[in-house]
Amino acid sequence: MVLVTLMIGTSMAAIDSSIVNVSLPVIQREFGVQLDAVALVVTTYMITYSLFIPLTSWLKNRIGYYKLYMFSIALFTIGSLLCSLADSLTFLILARVVQAIGGGSIAPTSLAILSETFPKEKRGSAIGWWGIGNVMGPALGPTLGGILTEYLGWESIFYVNIPIGIITIGMGMRHLRFLKELPLSRPPFDSKGYLLLAAFILLLQATIIPFASRYGVLSWQFLSGLSVTILVFWGYLRSARRPDALLDLSIFRLPAFTRPFIIVGIRSVALFGGMFFLPFLLQGYLGYSEMESALLLLPNALIMLVTRPISGKLADQGLIRNISLLGILLLSVSFALFSRIDTGTSAGLIVGCMILRGLGISFLIAPVSTALLNSVSALQTAAATSMNTLMLQLGGSIGIAASSALHTHLFSYYQGKTGTERLAEHFALQDGFLATAGLILLALIPARKLPQRTRKRLKEKEVLG
Fold it and tell me: Burial of 239 by CB count in 10 Å (0-12 exposed, 13-18 middle, 19+ buried)?
């Protein structure tokens, strides 16, 4: 029941990273804004989410896992209510900020609770089941969002969270009370480090979105913004050497942690960026409705539902490296096939792409998460889960921003070549998927050095420790 409670809360938060996507064309038409403006509905959520994640480890020590998890669920539910009541794009974006503050600690807190509750020999399977909530949320999000939007309006994608949030709070009060017994501490707050990290996240996003898309990556505006961003990040790294630093960066001295962390980053940039424009492709040039788009996305979620627990068991049995490599290859092939979708493409081919993508994600996430968590000690678990979730969100927001910038340049190029906006938009989207297929292949480099088996090494470490 602990696992089920964590799964429900995590899935509720995770689903909001993608449930909006299918509804973006509808929201764009209702509020009469451009694509880059409506993209803020997603990127603002992810940026705020990223800003709150670094506080998770500090808050866990100050107030404990129980209060942190329950407060996060409650605030996320309130934010969802505000989103459903939004009557302007500005109000909606501000409500998404409230929602993200609550959602920012749900996933790392859940993963940390799971990691400390389950023994290492069962952790891979537990992560596999928990991952159904963490990954099925984004997988089912587009399908659920399309159905709700077509029949109940875009507001319904937010107020559906309210009863789920109330149920999760009730289950947490019953099944997570044992967390109150964990000891608390009162570490000082690293305000300087947090401000520098927050400034880095905001500057990175601000540099990519306006400067790269409007002026190009070789412009003095982009290069100047990038230089300031690098300087701020360097300042943060110097500040993080303090013993009371907000995040324990010493975990990056462990190659066994750094490799899966790099994979998480590449995967996040590629998947979030590559999938952001899929609803615009399906509902734009191809002419599918919100409901039809939702049904085409459904096989991706269903195949993950079946294969995710299997992937976790395979990771426990010592197949971490092999299934991770297979997952990367399947993801790359699926996006290469997405780039060939055109008028006349059968629905069967689109469904096949979705199935390949679902298999790729299932075979990649559970083993990589298992390798990442097994590489650190119990005292480093909170820091590792926070860094993992931070990279997921930060990488996702960077992926969407970079894809937007690339799309802007590709659109201008094809518009000048074809003279047709509709066709230029379609070609730009196709090339964006092809770029994603190439980007995800970079994950093969660190994946080749992932451990195949970790259980024996961990037992030896425990004996020596």
Answer: middle
